[in-house]
Amino acid sequence: MKPPPPEALPGGAGLWRPVAAARGGGWATAAALLLVVVSHLAALLVRRRLRRGGRIAQPEAVAAAPAPASASPGSASELEGLVTEDDLRQLVGSLGVGAREPETEGWEHVISKGNDDVSYRVWCDKPTAGPPKYLSITTYERCSTEQLRDFYMDNEYRMEWDKTVTKHEQLQYDENSGVEVGRTIKKFPLLTPREYILAWRVWEANDKSFYCFIKECEHPLAVRQKKFVRVRLLRSGWCIRKIPGRDACQITVLHHEDNGMNIEMAKLAFSKGIWNYICKMNNALRRYPQHRSPSVSILTMQRLTKKFPQDLEAAMNASLPASQTTAATVVPSTRTSPCKLPGKKSSRQMIASGLLLVGSIVCLSRGRSNLGAQLAMALFLKKAFKQERESGSSTSRGKTNVTRSRR
């Protein structure tokens, strides 16, 4: 199935259309910006008070079990055609080729960080039009492939640790084909919530490796709502395998998504926040064994998981030594990047960060800003965030020195 053309993707002229040049337009823009800043700061203050009281609200989880294919409007044959073995073969080819030497195949290196528990490397492929594709390799120490698979597929648990996911519901599944369809709502700061209608399928190989392919789809039970922006392009797949000779496993992810966000703003947000997100994910993974009994997502996945095709596995085993050796030798950089615990910010820092965030979104999302202006704003934001981190680290060092001097 060919992906939709860029002009049909959400977030075009309707979401980031330029502001009309008219008399008084500047005052209207300033008033709207001020309203957004005030509302954003008010929400932050409310959340801080709720956290102090220990009564922060949790997103509503869906307790109902997913409907089988016979009880839902979509037929089993329609579900079977959403994710096929052809998708799996294409995924295996992409991961097997691209994960070995990404730089030699045109992938641009983004970041490479790691610590004693997790290491993360990611590359980016920028097409001539549309959002970039990302290829990432994450290694988790002291973790089995089964635990990492369950963690990634547990949508109910994700709503507890990933605050961008506000709701998830399983719409339908088919035990014959192993295809499952679900609906997820994600909320990003200052943006309309995004709605994901996705179909996925999981395969298990003989060596306890797992493969999953996810793609966008439509479903009769998911009626379009004006309060959400439906994501029309998402192609994602991953492979979880054990690293030979080590108590560790590795997940290789190939992800391509257009959620309607300004491309430059999305790339900047990714590069600035992805490592903190990986650290947060790692912390949630370590707590996962103490989690409650298996959720609906895990119970359904265990019934639907299919065996990896034997002919494809035989073809992979024939060329496995080189790829396995390369996968096992993917190590983080020698300089570790520990996961920092979030510290408290002063009201002045909150206001400055809020103004910087809103101003950057407005400047980068205006349709009339040219490439030079967007690049200048991106460089300004990079420098500003760097200065903020340096000031924060110097402040913490100063507090440490004062404490030591008092002792």
From TrEMBL:
GO terms for molecular function: lipid binding. GO terms for cellular component: cytoplasm; nucleus. The chain crosses the membrane at residues 25-46. Its main location: nucleus. Residues 59-78, 388-407 are annotated as: Disordered. Residues 59-77 have a biased composition (Low complexity). PROSITE patterns: START (PS50848). Residues 103-290 form the START domain. It comes from Setaria italica (Foxtail millet). This is START domain-containing protein. Residues 392-407 have a biased composition (Polar residues). It is found in: Nucleus. Keywords: Membrane, Transmembrane, Transmembrane helix.
